[in-house]
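Sample entry copied in:
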Amino acid sequence: MEVVIVGGGISGLVSAYKAAKEGKKAVLIESKDKLGGMIGTTSTSFGIVESAANGLIQTDSILDLCKDINLTPIYTNAAAKKRYFWSKGKIKQIPVSFLELLRGLYGFFFKEFTPKENESMKDIFFRVFGETISLNIIEPAFGGIYASALEEMDPQTVFSDLDWNNQKSLYRKLKSKKDKKRSVPAKLISFPSGMGELIEKLIVFLEKNTTVLLNQRINSIEEIQNRYPNAEIKIALPFHSVYHLLKDSEVTEKKVSPFSESDLPLQSITSITVFSKSKLFPSQGFGILFPKNETIRAKGVLSNTDIFPGRSKEGVFSETWIYAGKIAKEQSLEGLISILKQDRKQVSGKEEELSGVFGNEWKQSFPIYDKRLRFWNETIDEIEKEFENKGTSIRFLGNYRRGIGLRNLIESALRL
């Protein structure tokens, strides 16, 4: 059986790895001149700079993959256990009162977590956990993952694997959906030279048994079927590219006609890594999350030097600031760097000359987990089923398919 994979990001590379492990002939097609998608690591004279994710959560299958490609993971420093929030101009681990915390815990364990008609994430979280917990802890935490405000997200899209037919609390819903017990704890891992090492090792692993075609654009499903009849097809393209592929394919054009390009739930994210001679804040920890009702405009800042070993040279400290949504879409990189300096001054209490500044912009590249995305995924499910009924195996993979983190992307590629 031949497997054709369109898209050479992490989902496509892991799909090719899976095909190789199963003894299948794989063809990996990428429109650009390199593989890896958004993931990559740049070495500088100050330390390393990640273009996207700085790590992923380990699972049994991810550790098996690492072993197969001769990649040794590294774990977070002990200092990274502490997480901080910005509250009323100060850094705090718990930015709410004891009574407000009890209110939130009661909601988590006992209050029904089933959305009422037209409830957004903000509505259900306010109802279940209370406004203070939602705005000062939950929204910044979810913003660190999905880069979206609560009112922008849909609970059934974010928690797509929960059973929404029962009236249980969020705790009971999460407990009932747990898979068989893992043999490894859910720890954050990276690699000695950064996340780019994962891409490099996957590419080396695939050299012997996968045909890689770079600088080749696929314009329609029919083109794939004509070039590779009877092949198993994996579409591992970015959200907007999948939309154009399906819109330009005769077999799927009608299915995606209700969607317009301008209405695709996409947003921009910019990450800016800076190096300095003094630490942003005296305490050690993973970083700081910023609620949107504060004056700081970043979603959060990662304290890279505290998280993983070897992220900055001796005597230099590394941080990565994250900007998302409207500000990342409308501002230039230079404009965001200027804003970063203002934000940084608020946190550190002083203005400091930065040793190095490195930005990565991803314009309209990340999905917003709202109702539109839920309807889109339901349409993709229907397309997959229709092809299956006709005897063709086609699967769609990516950060828009019910899971935005690297762990979800890799696990999906290994499963499908």
